[in-house]
Amino acid sequence: MVLDTANIEAFALGCAILSAGGGGDPGIGLVMARHAIAESGPVEIIDPDALDPEALIMPCGLIGSPTVAQERVWSGEEGAQLVAAVEGSTHSPVSALMCYEIAGVNGLLPVMWASRQGKPLLDADGMGRAFPEMQQQAMHIAGIAASPVLLTDGRGNVIVVNAAGNRDAERLVRSCAATFGGTCAGALYTMTARSAAKAAIRGSVSKALRIGQMMTKRRSGWPEALADETAGRVLIKGRVTEIERRTGAGFSRGHAVVDGTGACSGRRLRLELQNEVLVALEDGEVLVTVPDIIAMLTLADGHPVGTERLRHGQRVGVVALPGPDVWRTEEGLQVVGPRSFGYDMDYVRGVTGADH
Amino acid sequence: MPTTEELRLGVDVGGTNTDAVVVDSAGMLVAKVKIPTTDDLCGDVEQGIARLLEDPAVDPMRVRCATLGARRATNAIRTASGLRRVAVLRIGAPLTFAIPPLVAWPPELRSAVHAGSATVAGGCEFDGEPLAALDEAGIVAFASAVGSGAAAVAITSVFSLVNPADELRAAEIMRRKLGDVPVSMSHEIGVMGLVERENATVLNAALSGVAAEVGRSFQTAVERTGLEAECYITQNDGTLMALEYSLRFPMLTIGSGPANGMRGGAHSSGVTDAIVADIGGATTAVGRLVNGFPWESLPPNSIGGVDTNFRLPDVLSIPVGGGSVVLGAAEQWANGRMNVGNSLVTEALCFGGPTPTITDAAVAAGRATTGTCPVPAKWHAGLAQHLELWDGLLAEAVDRVRLGADDLPLIVVGGGGDIAPDSFPGVREVIRPPHFEVANALGAAIAPVSGHAERICASRPDRLRAAVDEVSTEAVGRAIQAGADPAHVRVVDVEEIPLTYLRDPAVRIRARAVGPPVTFTPKSSGSAERARRHLA
């Protein structure tokens, strides 16, 4: 399987859907990935089992503010700089790149870098969706160290962070990103293909592509089609009647209300938002929570809607997709369950299907 | 009746009709006309003015200010025609190479506009630290390479909203090398987001020829009718800019039609907070008025398939107007664009014509009294079905534009205003203000002049007050450049918007200054003369 100019747009759509409304605008990532592929060729998508077990995998992506990255546009050389830094610190060659986060712009930046480096991209990621923090990684659950974390600003400056633990790494790396002007490229949780086969969330790239291709082919009924494809379920179809956002230093919280229309008339869904949609409630009952993926799609054209772009009066379908299995374990829920986002509630599995 | 009182003239050239009005200094309507729009902008404007001057209430000697709203810029981009070729200079190397200039543009538009591009070293980081020293030799080399192949220049530097110095310096170099070509600088056009701001800046530069043609046509038309008036073009926030200024910022005319309609509706209804539906012959624009001015949309906005982030009114467009033909299945019709244009009075059933239109549906339903004869009964059932569909489209647009605000009135304006219902779910009341059918021209005639400025102040809270003052001063300066009377210009709005998701504080500062237009006096003929030279 390859990502090429013919399917990259569908892949980007899949990345946007898996982002649960967060993850940054994949639009600019799509432009970069498409341009890289046009210039440097398609990207081979490779399964961890197809690699030498000792082969080195470099998970990578944007660290910091996606908003700043809209202005401070990438050089495209960040991948080369990260590979050189990782190889310098591990003394072994990087065999494949990996998205540390499949969702949003981070699903696409590694595609650009892989194309420019002529390296394959692993069919896996660290989150299976979007999360705001670095230690919210399947590799963290598996006991793999994030360090050494390599960071570059795209113009030759590199910072190496050797943290005592993954939460320390998160704190130090945020600080470095701020020093780099708000945003930077990072490589973290570097590991062997053997480790990746066990620790990473497998099949993420092909899943995003499959979802995107299926959605692109449809001409109507996108919420239902997405639910069918992912063993998820349509929570409601209706119009956005309320949005509240509170922003402060480094966080954004709020909620939205969707009033059902058509067959959903008379129903009302409340969504709790941070960067992502994290909880869906109806009549005070929790229907589904993070780590399941709550996606919003416009009813008119099936486009995924980010939490920042959600607006009053918008006609949307809200679909719950099963979250990756690793997050539904006790250890996983400690890192990404509703309580880790400040909601006093247990994880509610809103869908019966398994993640696949 | 005072005879020395100044009059202002407003013309709005719509897709179907051209409206023209004269108002007195209190904004009261003195005369109005509506004529069909043709392809000849100058001719339409001239005819509109000439018809107004036939009205005995209009003393040509007292008309000191003429304003025009036209839709030429949008059409030029949509059809990739009449655009100038642009030398695209980006300042930000070694960054930004991941997205070359214009790479995501529709090929036809790109080839019509692109005269060559270069990315040179320079720009700054978020906190103002230089990314690299400005590569002046690189800029000189680029200017030589594009040479006479470029009729305009667009310059975009990384974080120019934090520090525009490199854009200003590069503009100076390009002007020195290329002579008197229009130069657009991104910090004057868009907001944060390099690629979208660059796109907007390139389109702005490409439109400089269209702006010159519009200005020339307007000035010629005004002169032919013998008026001695200062000429202004309407901006998309419902304000004006002088012709000379419009040559620098043609992008600011995009969306000015609906903005004029909203402002005109606000003026004649006396309501400053409302939803406005501007119903023309072929399309309906629905927007929201806040404090008497159009609400701005959240960027990015796609123009002709290009993502941009310049200022635009938040307007939803429905491809249905008073002249829309009612044919076929209702669902298909909603997306259809068939309309009788300005032949409603010969084509529509209610005028004895052969074609069922949405206006006929409104007449058959007893909503409108347009026309000269009854709509034949055999059409009624089908027409009613389409009228219901139209009401649904309008209701959805109104619902989306009100952004959750309850209890706002709906102001209906435009030549097709008759087809709107008299009451509406989700709005307090439906208002059809006096002269609603010429609200766009009225909005142009009563508009003030404005200037905007915007900066980002990052990581330096101690500099914030000084930065706010600088931005306010710049807005005043730009309002005066745009033709505001320096004696009466004032800052009406300063916004300080904290940027999110950052550890270090950063504030986006926006200021708007507004003043009445400088009107024609024998002394001010200097500026008219300058504009004439510019347009020649």
Question: Can you offer a commentary on this structure?
Answer:
The complex is a heterodimer of chains A (356) and B (536). Helix content of chain A is 30%, strand content 28%. Chain A contains eleven helices and 17 strands. With 536 residues, chain B is of the alpha/beta class. Chain B folds into four domains: 168 residues, ATPase, nucleotide binding domain (Nucleotidyltransferase, domain 5, 2-Layer Sandwich), CATH 3.30.420.40; 123 residues; 118 residues, no CATH class; 67 residues, no CATH class. Chain B is built from 16 helices and 21 strands. The two termini of chain B are 40 Å apart. The chains are: A alpha+beta (356), B alpha/beta (536). Chains A and B meet through helix 2, helix 3, helix 7 and strand 11 of A and helix 6 and helix 13 of B.
The separation of the N and C termini of chain B measures 40 Å
Tally of distinct domains of chain B: 4
CATH homologous superfamily annotation of the largest domain in chain A: CV3147-like domain
Instruction: Please name the CATH topology of the largest domain in chain B.
Output: Nucleotidyltransferase, domain 5
Derived from helix and strand composition plus strand pairing, the structural class of chain A reads alpha+beta
Arrangement of strands in the largest sheet of chain B: 3-2-1-4-9-10
Q: Mind telling me the CATH class of the largest domain in chain A?
A: Alpha Beta
**Tally of helical runs of chain A:** 11
